[in-house]
Amino acid sequence: MEEQSVVLVVDDVKTNVLIMRQCLKEMFQVWTADSGEECLRVAKQKPDIILLDVLMPGMDGYQVCRQLKADPETAEIPIIFVTAKDSDDDEQKGLEIGAVDYITKPIRPAIVRARVSTHIQLKQHSDKLKFMALHDQLTGLYNRHFLAERAAQSLSAMVRHQQELSIVMLDLDHFKKINDFNGHHIGDLVLQAVAKLLQDCFRKEDVVARMGGEEFVILMECGLDIAREKTEDVRQQLARLNPMGLEVTGSFGVVTANPQNAELSHLLVLADEAVYKAKADGRNCVVC
Ligand code: GH3
Ligand code: MG
Ligand code: MG
Ligand code: MG
């Protein structure tokens, strides 16, 4: 696991970089940068951790750390200061601006390796927990927690910038029969195949979520006409999919948000009503 982990070493003194590389190369892939400015560029390539010198010409390590933390692309990368500045005040400052650890020079190689390894593992665990908290385990789609978070952001953006936002709800037709006739395991495989179809059909910016059971919700940043057209296309693709050799269709409800109904819970009630109507209209159809 750690063999693939990438450590970015940032230090303006070549000898220090060499010492660090020597210390880390057996366990990690080592990237280097010799200035704060270069560190900011290389950090965009997402190293697993950054070992950051403080005293450097140009930007110092504290400035670099603040910039990395302010940029959403790099904010989550753990940073360890490695520095000759050994006062309590310096260490406190380094930790307060967001570093996970603070190591003073001259370094003790075995301790640097152990600390780097621990922080990489902690980050991997927290990434995994975050993923599990926001995704559905069976299909890998987003779950309703993520949908709620993203919907809140999109709805406030809609109100502020007059953006459009539509919600598609899909409930598979007679899914209970699919389970009853083929077994729950086949039902699960069908749900996975439908999830993959949805992920392939909608754009990366759209949020495709499994709400639970055989119900899915998609958040689209577009108005009703485009959402309806797209949903009709997806309905047809689903009807042709034949996952596990079975005929599977879905009933779809599409609603569009406006500043007067900018609440996810209200939009979901409306979408659910549209789905209910699609069921009443004979299923395998889209109701707006
Ligand atoms: P309708 O067309 O009216 O929606 O009929 P339906 O049978 O799809 O509706 P209903 O809500 O009564 O049944 C949904 C079924 O989905 C019931 C349940 O057994 C099944 N289901 C829910 N979650 C899962 C799951 O995770 N895996 C599998 N295999 N089945 C599930
Ligand atoms: Mg230096
Ligand atoms: Mg249902
Ligand atoms: Mg159903």
TrEMBL record:
Reaction(s) catalysed by this chain's protein: 2 GTP = 3',3'-c-di-GMP + 2 diphosphate
CC cofactor: Mg(2+)
Classification via PROSITE patterns: GGDEF, RESPONSE_REGULATORY
Enzyme Commission designation: 2.7.7.65
A molecular function GO annotation: diguanylate cyclase activity
GO BP annotations listed: cell adhesion involved in single-species biofilm formation; negative regulation of bacterial-type flagellum-dependent cell motility; phosphorelay signal transduction system
Keyword presence, Phosphoprotein: yes
Entry-annotated residues carrying 4-aspartylphosphate: D53
Stretches assigned to the Response regulatory domain: 6-120
Entry keywords, A to Z: Phosphoprotein
Cellular component GO terms held in the UniProt record: plasma membrane
InterPro entries on file: CheY-like_superfamily, Diguanylate_Cyclase, GGDEF_dom, Nucleotide_cyclase, Rev_trsase/Diguanyl_cyclase, Sig_transdc_resp-reg_receiver
Domain GGDEF: 163-288
First-tier enzyme category under EC: transferase
UniProt protein name: diguanylate cyclase
Taxonomic lineage from the root: Bacteria, Pseudomonadati, Pseudomonadota, Gammaproteobacteria, Alteromonadales
